Amino acid sequence: MKKESSNGTIRRLGAALRQVYSPKYILLNIVTLAAYVALFYWLVSVQNNGLEITVVPSYMIYSLAAASSVLFTVTTRAFLLRRSKLDASAGAIGTAAMFLGGLFGGCGCSAPILFSLVSIGIGTTGIVSFMNAVSANIFLLFSLMIAINLFAAIYYLNRISKSACKVR
Amino acid sequence: MPKTTRNNDRKFHISMALNIIQAVTIAALAFALLVVISSSSQQKPSASGNVPASNASVETLSNIGQPLNSSELSVINNAPDSYFEEAGQMLLNQSLTNYISVGKNPQYAPFIVNGKPSVIYVGAISCVYCGENRWAMALALSRFGSFTQLFKGYSSLGDHDVRTLYWNADNYNAIGASFGNFYQSKYINFISAEYDSPIDLSLQIQTPAWFASQATNVTYKDAMLFMNSTGKFGGTPFTFWGTSLVGGADASIFGNSIPSGNSLPISNWTHAQILSQLSSFNDQFAWSEYAAADVYAAQVCPALQDSNTIPVCGLPAIKTLEGLMNLTAANQSA
After folding, report:
1. Is A153 in the B-facing interface, judged by CB distances under 8 Å?
2. ipTM score of the complex?
3. Which residues 175-214 on chain B approach chain A with CB closer than 8 angstroms?
């Protein structure tokens, strides 16, 4: 079996991406992106007495929301094509990433969400250590979540671009 | 092994990895959602008001650690009692546009040192809420004593670079603990513990238990152990006023109103501008700071035997705040 060249792979994925993003799915992506941004800022405000104060720059917030919404859109399309439970649940990765982003982004001097974990036996020392680590590595964490979302999106795009389940 | 089989194995492993990630994230999502819902139901109410556009923050650490000069110190030490009364009335009739909390805080017996009750502070120089709230704390403490020194400070560059006061000549280049301050009073003790960390990096905080392990002075060690024993540490600032334990800042004052978005006006002001506003007492920022100070002062007065000799404790606004927080002398637990 002839191995596909990298150029061929890129062309195939590009074609699949163009076919996934019909007007309906572009709209889905935009709505999902807006919802994810709203989720982020809601989580931040919950942790900051209603203030949307975060240490994360806007471009990272929107990049994560974009990557997560792309994953959600691609996996939704994949599910409708393949009816695979794996595809259906894959969108949760993006949602979880935004949730974690909001948790970490709103994590400041006081972190009511994290400190509520004391009620299940996690000590304050552990929570503070975690908070300090998150604070010191916030950019790395966001970059990692963006990368995971993009990798997953490419993976599912690859699945639906194969001959057995191409977008037609 | 045939190439087809190896490819299938790789696809299977990727698929399994994604399956695991999905399962873990869905479970974590469900749990975290429960935690958030329970946390948001306990959220303190927020103030509302007009929100002007904010400028982008300009990072600077200019004059960090510089002691306030005598005229700057006088703004804090010699603020008129009338400012506290007027701001308190504005807080009570809800004409302030910043968030200030007037809540019923957990009550404990006073922490007595040398026959005086204490104000205990656990914070971090990098922390944005410690930074914005030290102005109000300093004003509150000025009603019961005076500072011989205060220092110009900032929250960390990674946490909004807010202009603030430091209680001590903190080390803003390395990790460590700073105990003590330059406060004197015949009515109360002020026991402060600040976590130092490189100010050009991110927020870093520590627990009262950690401070207790670092304290070389018995009084400070006991104070930190007391704070730790409450089991209510949930971040910084973490303070004790008279008999009231206060988790977090009692206010969020970053400008003349609640900031929209992530840009904080106080991150663009100089210390001179902030002190000028406090001295002039003619804008929402200043009124809010004095009002936040009133909330702290109202929690100290009931713990004092001779509060009737302290002018601030006789202010009508303070008396009303005491009542709202259920802190009249008759309700104090000994």
Report:
1. no
2. 0.84
3. 201-207, 209-210
Q: Which residues make Cβ contacts (< 8 Å) with residue A29, sequence separation at least 6?
A: A21, A69, A70, A72, A73
3-state secondary structure of B239: strand
CA distances from B85 to A47, A77, B70, B80, B318 (A): 31, 63, 25, 9, 8
DSSP, residue by residue, B97-164: -SEE------B-----BTTB-EEEEEEETT-HHHHHHHHHHHHHHTTTSEES--EEEE--GGGTT-EE
Nearest residue on chain A to B132, alpha-carbon basis = A109
Q: What is the CA radius of gyration of chain B?
A: 23
Reading the block at residue B186, the tokens are 């015949």
- Which residue has better confidence, B302 or B12? B302
Q: What are the domain boundaries of chain A?
A: 7-162
For chain A, helix, strand, coil in percent to 5 are: 80, 0, 20
Q: Which residues pair with B147 in a beta bridge?
A: B183
Residue B314 has pLDDT above 70, yes or no: yes
Nearest residue to B138 (alpha-carbon basis) of B239, B258, B244, B243: B239
Cα–chain center distance at A12: 24
Closest by CA to B49, choosing from B260, B248, B249, is: B260
d(CA A10, CA A7): 5
Residue B149 pLDDT exceeds 90? yes
For the stretch B228-259, pLDDT in tens is 999 999 999 999 999 999 999 999 999 999 98
Give Cβ neighbours of residue A25 (< 8 Å, ≥ 6 apart).
Answer: A73, A76, A77
Q: How far is CA B117 from the centre of its chain?
A: 20
- Give dist(CA B88, CA B292) in Å, integer: 8
Domain boundaries, chain B: 70-329
- The model's pLDDT over B7-58, given as tens digits with 9 standing for 90+, comes to 656 665 665 566 556 655 655 555 555 555 544 444 332 222 222 223 334 5
Contacts with B16 from chain A: Cβ below 8 Å: none
CB B139 within 8 A of CB B133: no
* Chain A positions in Cβ-Cβ contact with residue B44 (cut-off 8 Å): 49
Q: Does B110 touch chain A (CB under 8 A)?
A: no
Nearest to B32 among A52, A103, A138 (CB): A103
Q: Give the burial class of B52: count Cβ atoms within 10 A of its Cβ; 0-12 exposed, 13-18 middle, 19 or more buried.
A: exposed
CA-CA distance, B263 to B265, in Å (whole number)?
Answer: 7
Distance CA A33, CA A39 (A): 10
Question: What is the residue-wise DSSP string for B280-326?
Answer: H--SHHHHHHHHHHHHHHHHHGGG-TTGGGSGGGG-HHHHHHHHHTT
- Of the candidates A52, A116, A128, the beta carbon closest to that of B261 is on A52
